[in-house]
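Curious: can you check?
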Amino acid sequence: MPLISVSNFKAISDQKTLVNSVSFDTEEGFITGIVGESGSGKSVSCMGFTRLLPDSISTDGQVIFKNVEGNYINLLKCSDEQLRKLRGKEIAYIFQEPMTALNPVHTCGYQVEEAIHIHQKLDKNQRKEKVLELFKEVKLPDIERIYSSYPHQISGGQRQRVMISMALANDPRLLIADEPTTALDASVQKSIIDLLVSMVKKRGMAMLFISHDLSCLKSVADTILVMYKGNLVETGTSDEIFNNPKHPYTKALMKTRPSYKLAGAVLPTIPDLLIENQDGSFSEKEFKNSFRSNIPQGDTILEIINLEKTYNKKNFFSKSQNQAPILKSISFNVNQGQTIGIVGESGCGKSTLAKILTGLETVSKGEISFKKSNSNVLGRQIQMVFQDPFSSLNPSITGGEAIMEPLLVHKIANKQEAKQNALKLLELTGLSEEFFYKYPHQMSGGQRQRLCIARALSLEPSILILDESVAALDVSVQSQILNLLKDIQLKLGLTYLFISHDLNVVGYMADTIFVLKNGVIEEQGNALELIKNPQSDYTKFLINCMYN
């Protein structure tokens, strides 16, 4: 009997089937990957297995779990008390966003200790010792400092390792990892994945690894389950899925991944590759490759000379002290119509550079020269699209109001003119008029990002800064947004600064790539040449993390 056996699992909300008849088994020491787009039922399934879904969602079927005593328990039918004993002890979770999952008012050490205290009879000293051992096991640096640190005081990769420590604290037998590496840099992503795989093999656990990125599972999963609109459409070993996929949706999912090899081409999306027939079956759809015209580049419109940014560390009892510079002597030119890709690990200075260019941060040293003759206000000529569209939109105003707001604040147009401009921008970004009246929570992630792009274009900027603007989106939605950005750039002659940790996406979008490391441009050059023939050891390291 496997560790967990799922038979005909269903999840239903308001007579709508969210998950339909999912069945699979998982053994100890094995990793099962669950892949699919947002809304496919991945997270709903795994949360449903341990009854973490809201009461409005009903579940059916069987989820049989073999506990440490060797007893078989149906998780959907057992008592609440039985389930509480299993959650956090024998079944543990790692969530996608550690900053949200961790409590901001408690230290990292306290939160992992709390997980141990609930299930183990250890005194305070023993609990601290165990936490430090866990921190060491997940390869956290300076474990005493992190033990006393709050979540906001450590990096995203370190927060995710703290979450892994918490999940491993009670030696679980089943680990459920829900998109644990989505928003992390390639190098951090690879180290987290390697860590999780080694933990599973070392401890003999089973793991369910949820991801919307099929390629992410290639080096992780023993078995892969492919889900589409609540249905399990294909199951197979990792080799079978990657080398000989059977289902048209699996094949389509593999073809929508952006890559530098597709630079200049229109990216296929799921609807371009998949036909869903009336009888519920699927057919492959022929996609004819098409290429865009090259975007003509004009004169230099932005010149950055010896840019430096240093933050002051202020202490109540002493004078302020300068910390190490975040950016050091950054210099480059940007031509009209050009797309510059900026890559590097967290903390290298990518987002700081973007904030300086949009006026959200001040320069410590250096010069920024904007050379467009008809520029009125620099802040209006350079606009930014942020990583998380939900956080960057005001939840209390409609999509139309969000686009109109910059026009009204800058007194560029009256309400009637602003509304007409907003409707034109919605059309330009592929959204219908109904989105003028919709609120952010009524839109999908891709629709919200389109709205953010429309808002950024409302002031008719010359330069658009895209800061990890597709990082949290499904690969198919990524393709839609990247196609949209290319089409808009060709139509409006825009210049892009495209910031990302994903070299696949940067290689597709950019003409030129700058590699940042510790606030310095480590390497720069033509996008395709740099990826195919990197000169710097650091660039080679980033590419190795991405493509291996």
Observations:
- The CA atoms of residues 217 and 353 lie 33 Å apart.
- The first strand starts at residue 4 and ends at 13.
- The radius of gyration is 25 Å.
